[in-house]
Amino acid sequence: MVKWKDEEHSFKSAVLKGIAALGIAAMAVASFAGLASAESLLDRIKNGDTIRLGFTNEPLSAYPGANNEPLGLVNAITLDVLKKMGTTNVESVVTDWAALVPGLQAGRIDVITGGMWIKPERCRNVLFSEPIAAVNDALVVPKGNPEDVHSLHDVRDKGLTFVTGAGYTGVKLAQDLGIAEDKIMQVAGPPEIVQAVKVGRAAAGGLFSMTAHHFAENDPAIEVADPYTSSGPNEHPAIAFSLNEQAAVDAFNAVLKDYIGSDEMMEAVGKYGYTKTMLPDGTTTAEACKR
Questions:
Q1: Is the dihedral of CA 265, 267, 271, 277 positive or negative?
Q2: Where does 137-224 sit in CATH, by number?
Q3: CA 130 to chain centre
Q4: Domain 42-134+235-288 in CATH: superfamily?
Q5: Would you state the pLDDT for residue 75?
Q6: In the predicted model, is pLDDT for residue 5 greater than 60?
Q7: How far is residue 278's CA from residue 192's CA, in Å, rounded to a whole number?
Q8: Nearest CA to 92 among 75, 115, 73, 74?
């Protein structure tokens, strides 16, 4: 009987020791994971770690290739700068436009390369690099422009439906101009904008000028409104980072300063239609964040 109790005691002791050992191991793993998650983006770039680039499907700005590789002019610029900073390892995270900032905030994306325009409301949620271009918007309309649309004012005054992307600056612009809420259609991105115009769900769709021309050149059912009167000044696309990654933004900008407009950059982005007329116009990110 005593022998049985001794064996039981030995067994319980072994179990307790095993549980304690597992607990210590779990704490060690948790501690390591905490350290890993605390590693800054700049450290990860310098270490050559994989950096997740977030963008939507928007030729020729940023879009995925056949093997999900990051293509487009904004990705080309980002890849070159990241290489100079220390890494060539990247992973594409392709998602809807409206999911980019939430994905960055949740840590599912490291850098947004969708060519996001610098706007005050966005500056409260992300850190932007200095501008990589000075561009403007455009309208895609059905072939022949049957509604004779040449501005968002025309869309408003004729009571037509305007389609843009969910989360695009075009939503607020249309609202500010007085276009009725039920006349502002929001969809996932450029392909859906073009489709809405093609099938007659909207009279005009708002896109980045280069993107608009790209779709019009490849789809005989639509065209770019010409002439077109923009409703605002030049827009300034940039690369977006998390609010706690100022060091990475500063390092990125330091490289970008010498890279922007260089022969190396123009060779990388030229195939996407980027020309020297699109280079930054001197507006800084700090200035754009206050407009």
A1: positive
A2: 3.40.190.10
A3: 15
A4: Periplasmic binding protein-like II (3.40.190.10)
A5: 98
A6: no
A7: 26
A8: 75
The DSSP element (H or E) to which 103 belongs, if any, is: helix 100-105
C-alpha dihedral over 158, 163, 164, 169, to 10 degrees?
20
pLDDT at 231: 78
Q: At what angle do helices 73-85 and 246-259 cross, to 10 degrees?
A: 110
- Quick check: 158 and 147 in contact, CB under 8 A? yes
CA 161 to chain centre: 26
Bridge partners (DSSP) listed for residue 185: 163
Integer angstrom CA distances of residue 165 from 35, 56, 88, 208, 246:
38, 11, 31, 11, 28
Burial zone of 289 (CB within 10 Å; 0-12 exposed, 13-18 middle, 19+ buried): middle
Give the separation between CA 46 and CA 61, rounded to whole angstroms. 26
Give me the amino acid identity at 177. L
Residue 241, token pair as written in the block: 């980072």
Give the helix/strand (H/E) hosting 162: strand 162-165
Any idea how long the chain is? Answer: 291
Q: Would you give the DSSP letter of residue 62?
A: B
3-state secondary structure of 54: strand
Q: Among the residues of 124-205, which ranges form H helices?
A: 152-157, 169-176, 190-198
Reported as a pLDDT band with limits 50, 70 and 90, residue 109 is: very high
Percent of the chain that is helix, strand, coil (3-state, to 5): 45, 20, 35
Q: Where are the domains of the chain?
A: 42-134+235-288, 137-224
Statement: residue 89 has pLDDT above 60: yes
Q: Do the Cβ atoms of 185 and 202 come closer than 8 Å?
A: yes
Say whether 241 sits in a helix, a strand or coil. Answer: strand
Judge whether 42-134+235-288 and 137-224 match in fold.
yes
Tell me the pairing of strands 137-142 and 204-208.
Answer: antiparallel
- The predicted pLDDT at position 65 comes to 97
